[in-house]
């Protein structure tokens, strides 16, 4: 796996390691890495990047810690929480994705009159893909605006494809979904209850590229090369929607037709400490972090050149 | 009551019995003797409907036997495997009586009576694996007798018991059968026994078994262990059957060795 | 002789029979202390968590905390309901296909298919088929647990010593008697092997069923702990499951000892 | 065989009808015909075949390892009562622990994702083989063992020449159970933990794209694989255990 | 060579044999007779080290038997269960020969020779379930003989074969044993057989079995089926043993009924 080619090889621009295995999620957030692979940005830097499809932070994080993966795409909420709990020492090497309106919405059955806005969420069962991450935080925060406090026990973890059925048969009252499920479930008689990425959560940073602290300090050149290639791809993704639509069918099962209509977030081009500190602060506010958290300690911004 | 017409059976390509013809009358006791491996058990299993003979027919009261006939009891040669290890001796004997429409108490009583008759009254509560070989064999005899079948098939039923018990069991079987008008087909290796117990003795040839002798035993009944065996007729018949069996076996041995 | 002695086995010697438990605990403690891995807390740490989580409640409730009651009650309910349903269905179906070659032929491919399908993947289908959540969870448990019972029962009923059946046939046993007095007792050892396998499987599937679409129970607690990176809690749940399984199995063996006494004694060399 | 096809076809027809008449919501459970079409496409889809091969490899080694561990262990525990009594608390403690709960932990132990999947599968598949082996060993006719003992054979020979062959049919049932448990766990581990290749990876990717048809089609291949493996094992059992079947009555 | 000192065994609370004393010399053939269920098989299993007697001791060459003695062969009463169904008759007979350090070919030859001697040369490739009861019994005799043990224990070894085969097997066993200097303990129900085969006949009482008679059979060897049985000494001995067994059994039956 990931350990191949660890030995420094001077013929590759002095990179400490040229073959990287990167954990991605089969959702639009990961598009830049596929763009970088397809457009040869990694090859140009002397890197060979292989992707591993991950399911979520709970299993991708230990893989990163154990060295099975060299980098992963992870949501910030999960990441900061893991760092605080001492699961590992991580570094964010690039920002990836930030929320845009209607990226992540709460939906309920169209004929369910009891739930039509975040104010109605009290005591309702809400399906989320993972507990203790961006999903629960976003729902909690947007409900708070409407004066409702969500009990963590209201959250029901379940895989996204199961949510439609669970909503329909009443296992849950509301579901928190992203594309392509928003489009699909709308057609199947679900209504949008709230855009959870509005108000306090507007433009909220979602996910970034993460490496082990130790890996970053041992392989500075490789990391820099990785960052350079990724930056080009992030840039392309941010500016050209077509480039995303092109790669989506390659690493997800979202077909070209769907890819052309779904709502996408914003692809970040810089790694901003201020923006990410907002994540940490919000987490602290809702009890996701015990102590204050200085995000600087987990950032590894690209060095110029 | 029982008629075998050209009964033939082969296991795969191997012919075990070959065109056996035999008629057994109601209430008759027929003993079958023949060398080891000649197809006696095969014959019995065909009559019991446990194997479908490859040729010929078994007729019971004139009708062909398609499956296992009603009102039948069998004492298997491999008696130890025909007792149910999860039941006590009493329950093993009592089990078939469920068909007789008896209630639990009546079943237990009948079973206990049968066990006592074979000398196992004291062992009724034991499980088969707690019994000696001969005791197991007696349990399976008790089971067959308690059932009061109209046709009783026995495959070497007295092979594992001592001489004294054997004689008692022979008399017991004859007594019970006469009393209830059972018809019996009894397979044995003991020439004396075949003559003592049987109304007829059928001798089978070496495999594939065919009927080579069918002697009517014309001895006065009821039989008695001492007196019957002293009769000249008995001694003569015994010698006849013995010669017959011996003749076959000798030829047989010649060929297989 | 041996039987008498083993029956009178003293309580002390039974407890001494558990020597492997302290030995394992000590080795485990040493290993985790040497490794110092956040994913692998020491058993002493886990024990403390177990006490905090579930056994720091009021004496009147046997020290159980609210959390314990909240987690255990629904889980155990699902567990037993699922196991009993699966066992009943498995034995019924197993006997049916064990005794009827024709039925077995018709159903075989479907059963072999179903057996290889991971139960979690069926969740969306169950959601589509069942209109209530509880039914979905029970369906997951039953679907996952039924196979060892079904297979072992079918196998046990199919392979009854020929002589047993022939005896039944010649004595003209009714179909019901053949089934109840011969086939099922003869298949009992295999059925019990299947039941025993399925009991701990039921515990596993109870957890699996609670991982998806549940807000209560041990599985929900486990996944919450896992996704919150609370490793001591994760291990507390694992240990809890192990202990529960051990207790369930011990009770099961007691029952089996009663019912299969004939078998165990018949098979003992004296 | 023919009856099996008839039975399966019957079920498929019923499902198709239920979908077409709206009895089942086709958005959650697509029409049978759709799924079959997808499944057929997958059979010639290079990417999917790559995933399938990866799972197959993990499954094969997991099953091999399971047999290599569980059969000797079961024989030992079945023959040596004290060993079984001593090991029982540990076994009964470990048995009900869900492999799924162990996945994040196994990730930390096994660097290679294939090893990780195998370990999870072996963990779960061991129990049916182990328990069936122990029960099979106990089921051995004592007289069969005594016969060999009386000829002066030691315990090793008794185990190898009598216990193992007589328990073999029982063990085989355990192996058949384990074969499907191993498939289930390899796929589940892939679904839960992701990875580079594997049917489970394919399924979770399809899930993230809301392609229920592809998920079910892939799952159907898993089930078909289960049928194939079972048929192979049954055929092998029939050949190997002719003696057993000859003594045991067939179904009526 | 074999000595039983106060040998006692109880199954649970049930006493099967009670303080049995017996000495068997090297090369001697000792027959044991006694009523069904008196503990003969229990005695045999104690000697074979298959059960641990509750009291007394079994000494072999002066040393107490702790586990199964070396160089022993047993023909079990329940022969059908002691054959391995997964092995052919030939392989069943050949299996113990592995202990003799023979290679495959030598084993097969020895096994084939033994099978031929019991008249089963033609059935060597068959599996036990393809054999008749008597054939199975002969396979297990062949297995014991091929092994050439120094001590041979036989539990009713000829119970399932016809009279002719039985006589041949008796002679075969005597011949092989004399040739190889085996010591034999043979359990039988047939009084004639015990006198014909044995150098000594030991009579056991009803359960719990104790030795009630120990007769030395002083007949000239080698025995011959026709001539030996015609000897006056034979007829007298047979009557003696018969009386002894009968006496016990009668008392026994009285009590259990
Ligand atoms: N299941 C079987 N498969 C193949 N051959 C068989 C089978 N059962 C019996 N045979 C063969 O058929 C022949 C007759 O067997 P059967 O059991 O009827 O003999 P038998 O007369 O009862 O002998 P015995 O007196 O020894 O019990 C034997 O040669 C035996 O090898
Ligand atoms: N495993 C056992 N458990 C309990 N009791 C047993 C067991 N085996 C034998 N017995 C009892 O011990 C007594 C002697 O049995 P054994 O088998 O030694 O008799 P036997 O002399 O060989 O009789 P047979 O000639 O009928 O074979 C019998 O009464 C039997 O019920
Ligand atoms: Mg026979
Ligand atoms: Mg005996």
Automatic annotation (TrEMBL), chains B, E:
Q: Name one GO molecular function term.
A: ATP hydrolysis activity
Q: Keyword set for this entry?
A: ATP-binding, Nucleotide-binding, Transport
Where the record annotates domain ABC transporter, the positions are: 2-231
Report if keyword ATP-binding is assigned.
yes
Family matches, as InterPro entries: AAA+_ATPase, ABC_transporter-like_ATP-bd, ABC_transporter-like_CS, ABC_transporter_ATP-bind, P-loop_NTPase
The record's annotation in Gene3D superfamilies points to: P-loop containing nucleotide triphosphate hydrolases
Pfam families the record matches: ABC_tran (PF00005)
Q: What name does the UniProt record give this protein?
A: ABC transporter
From TrEMBL, chain C:
Q: Which SUPFAM superfamilies match?
A: MetI-like (SSF161098)
Q: Which CDD domains match?
A: TM_PBP2
* Keyword Transmembrane included in the entry's annotation: yes
Subcellular location, record wording: Cell membrane
Coiled coil segments of this chain? none
The regions listed as transmembrane in this protein's record are 80-101, 121-150, 200-223, 235-255
How does this protein lie in the membrane?
Answer: Multi-pass membrane protein
- Domain of life, source organism: Bacteria
GO-annotated cellular components:
plasma membrane
Q: What GO biological process terms are annotated to this protein in UniProt? A: transmembrane transport
Against InterPro entries, the record matches this protein to: MetI-like (IPR000515), MetI-like_sf (IPR035906)
Where does the record place the ABC transmembrane type-1 domain? 72-256
Assign the protein's first listed, main location to one coarse class. Answer: membrane
Please provide the record's keywords in A-Z order.
Cell membrane, Membrane, Transmembrane, Transmembrane helix, Transport
Q: Which family does it belong to?
A: Belongs to the binding-protein-dependent transport system permease family.
User: PANTHER family this protein is in?
Assistant: ABC TRANSPORTER PERMEASE PROTEIN MJ0413-RELATED, ALKANE SULFONATE ABC TRANSPORTER-RELATED, MEMBRANE SUBUNIT
Which protein are we looking at? Nitrate ABC transporter permease
Species annotation: Acrocarpospora macrocephala
Task: State the organism's lineage.
Answer: Bacteria, Bacillati, Actinomycetota, Actinomycetes, Streptosporangiales
Automatic annotation (TrEMBL), chain D:
UniProt key word Metal-binding: no
How does this protein sit in the membrane? Multi-pass membrane protein
Q: Where in the cell is it found?
A: Cell membrane
Q: Which InterPro entries match?
A: MetI-like (IPR000515), MetI-like_sf (IPR035906)
Superkingdom, taxonomy of origin? Bacteria
Where is the secretion signal located?
none
Where, by residue number, does the polypeptide cross the bilayer?
Answer: 58-81, 120-138, 150-171, 177-202, 214-236
A Gene Ontology BP annotation from the UniProt entry = transmembrane transport
Q: Which UniProt keywords apply?
A: Cell membrane, Membrane, Transmembrane, Transmembrane helix, Transport
Keyword flag Transmembrane helix: yes
Family matches, as Gene3D superfamilies: MetI-like
Q: What GO cellular component term, any one, is given?
A: plasma membrane
Pfam families per record:
BPD_transp_1
The ABC transmembrane type-1 domain is annotated at 52-233
- Sequence similarity: Belongs to the binding-protein-dependent transport system permease family.
Q: What is this protein called?
A: Nitrate ABC transporter permease
């Amino acid at each position: 796996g990931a350990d191949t080619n660890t030995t420094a090889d001077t013929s590759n621009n002095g990179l400490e390691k040229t073959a990287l295995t990167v954990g991605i999620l089969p959702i639009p957030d990961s598009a830049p890495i596929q763009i970088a692979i397809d457009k040869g940005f990694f090859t140009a830097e002397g890197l060979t990047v292989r992707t591993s499809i991950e399911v979520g932070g709970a299993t991708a994080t230990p893989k990163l810690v154990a060295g099975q993966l060299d980098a992963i795409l992870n949501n910030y909420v999960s990441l900061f929480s893991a760092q605080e709990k001492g699961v590992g020492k991580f570094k964010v090497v690039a920002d990836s994705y930030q929320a845009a309106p209607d990226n992540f919405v709460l939906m309920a059955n169209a004929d369910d009159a009891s739930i039509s806005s975040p104010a109605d969420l009290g005591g309702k069962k809400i399906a989320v893909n993972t507990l203790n991450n961006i999903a629960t935080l976003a729902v909690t925060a947007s409900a708070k605006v409407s004066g409702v406090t969500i009990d963590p026990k209201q959250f029901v973890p379940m895989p996204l494809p199961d949510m439609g059925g669970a909503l329909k048969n009443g296992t849950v009252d509301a579901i928190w979904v992203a594309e392509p499920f928003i489009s699909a479930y709308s057609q199947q008689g679900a209504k949008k209850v709230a855009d959870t990425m509005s108000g306090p959560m507007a433009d909220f940073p979602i996910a970034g590229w993460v490496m082990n602290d130790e890996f970053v300090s041992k392989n500075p050149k490789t990391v820099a090369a990785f960052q350079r290639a990724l930056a080009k791809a992030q840039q392309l993704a941010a500016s050209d929607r077509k480039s995303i639509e092109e790669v989506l069918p390659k690493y997800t099962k979202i077909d070209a037709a769907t890819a052309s209509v779904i709502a996408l977030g914003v692809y970040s081009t810089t790694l901003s400490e201020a923006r990410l500190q907002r994540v940490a602060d919000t987490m602290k506010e809702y009890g996701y972090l015990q102590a204050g958290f200085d995000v600087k300690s987990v950032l590894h911004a690209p060095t110029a050149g | 009551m029982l008629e075998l017409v050209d009964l033939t059976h082969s296991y795969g390509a191997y012919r075990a019995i070959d065109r056996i013809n035999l008629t057994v009358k109601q209430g008759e006791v027929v003993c079958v003797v023949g060398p080891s491996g000649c197809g006696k058990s095969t014959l019995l299993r065909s009559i019991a409907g446990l194997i479908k003979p490859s040729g010929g027919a078994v007729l019971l009261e004139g009708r062909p036997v398609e499956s296992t006939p009603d009102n039948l009891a069998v004492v298997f040669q491999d008696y130890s495997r025909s007792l149910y290890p999860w039941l006590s001796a009493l329950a093993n004997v009592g089990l078939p009586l469920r068909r007789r429409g008896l209630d639990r108490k009546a079943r237990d009583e009948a079973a206990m009576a049968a066990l006592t008759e074979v000398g196992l009254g004291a062992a009724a509560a034991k499980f088969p694996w707690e019994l000696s070989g001969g005791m197991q064999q007696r349990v399976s005899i008790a089971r067959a007798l308690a059932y009061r079948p109209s046709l009783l098939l026995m495959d070497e039923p007295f092979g594992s018991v001592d001489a004294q018990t054997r004689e008692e069991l022979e008399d017991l079987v004859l007594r019970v059968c006469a009393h209830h008008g059972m018809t019996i087909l009894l397979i044995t290796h003991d020439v004396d026994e075949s003559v003592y117990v049987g109304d007829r003795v059928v001798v089978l040839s070496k495999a594939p078994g065919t009927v080579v002798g069918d002697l009517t035993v014309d001895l006065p009944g009821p039989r008695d262990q001492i007196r019957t065996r002293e009769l000249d007729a008995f001694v003569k018949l015994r010698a006849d059957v013995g010669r017959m069996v011996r003749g076959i076996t000798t030829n047989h041995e010649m060929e297989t060795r | 002789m041996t039987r008498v002695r083993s029956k009178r086995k003293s309580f002390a010697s039974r407890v001494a029979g558990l020597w492997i438990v302290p030995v394992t605990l000590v080795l485990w403690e040493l290993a985790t202390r040497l490794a110092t891995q956040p994913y692998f807390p020491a058993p002493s740490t886990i024990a403390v968590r177990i006490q905090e989580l579930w056994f720091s409640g009021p004496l009147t409730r046997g020290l159980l905390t609210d959390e314990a009651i909240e987690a255990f009650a629904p889980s155990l309910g699902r567990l037993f309901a699922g196991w009993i349903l699966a066992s009943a269905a498995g034995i019924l179906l197993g006997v049916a296909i064990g005794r009827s070659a024709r039925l077995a032929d018709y159903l075989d491919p479907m059963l072999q298919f179903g057996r290889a399908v991971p139960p979690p993947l069926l969740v969306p289908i169950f959601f589509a088929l069942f209109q209530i959540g509880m039914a979905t969870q029970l369906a997951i448990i039953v679907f996952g647990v039924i196979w060892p019972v079904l297979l072992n029962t079918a196998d046990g009923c199919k392979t009854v010593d020929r002589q047993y059946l022939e005896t039944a046939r010649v004595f003209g046993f009714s179909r019901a008697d053949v089934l109840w007095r011969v086939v099922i007792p003869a298949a009992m050892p295999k059925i019990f092997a299947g039941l025993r396998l399925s009991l701990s499987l039921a515990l596993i599937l109870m957890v699996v069923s609670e991982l998806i679409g549940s807000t209560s129970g041990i599985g929900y607690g486990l996944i919450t702990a896992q996704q919150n990176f609370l490793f001591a809690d994760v291990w507390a749940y694992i240990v809890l499951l192990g202990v529960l399984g051990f207790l369930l199995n011990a009770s099961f063996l007691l029952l089996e000892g009663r019912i299969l006494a004939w078998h165990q004694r018949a098979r003992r060399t004296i | 065989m023919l009856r099996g096809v008839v039975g399966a076809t019957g079920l498929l027809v019923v499902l198709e009808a239920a979908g077409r008449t709206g009895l089942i919501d086709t958005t959650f459970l697509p029409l049978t015909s759709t799924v079959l079409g997808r499944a057929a496409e997958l059979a010639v889809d290079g990417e999917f075949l790559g995933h399938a091969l990866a799972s197959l490899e993990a499954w094969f080694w997991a099953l091999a390892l399971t047999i290599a561990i569980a059969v000797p262990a079961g024989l030992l525990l079945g023959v040596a009562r004290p060993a079984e009594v001593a090991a029982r608390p540990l076994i009964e403690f470990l048995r009900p622990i869900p492999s799924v709960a162990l996945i994040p932990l196994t990730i930390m132990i096994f660097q290679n994702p294939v090893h990780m999947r195998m370990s999870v599968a072996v963990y779960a598949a061991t129990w049916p083989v182990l328990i069936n082996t122990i029960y099979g060993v106990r089921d051995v006719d004592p007289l069969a063992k005594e016969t060999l003992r009386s000829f002066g054979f030691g315990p090793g020979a008794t185990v190898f020449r009598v216990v193992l062959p007589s328990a073999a049919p029982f063990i085989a049932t355990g192996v058949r159970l384990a074969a499907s448990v191993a498939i289930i766990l390899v796929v589940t581990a892939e679904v839960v933990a992701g990875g580079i290749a594997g049917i489970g990876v394919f399924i979770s990717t399809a899930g993230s794209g809301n392609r229920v048809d592809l998920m079910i089609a892939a799952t159907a291949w898993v089930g078909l694989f289960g049928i194939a493996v079972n048929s192979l094992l049954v055929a092998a059992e029939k050949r190997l255990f002719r003696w057993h079947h000859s003594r045991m009555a067939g179904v009526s």
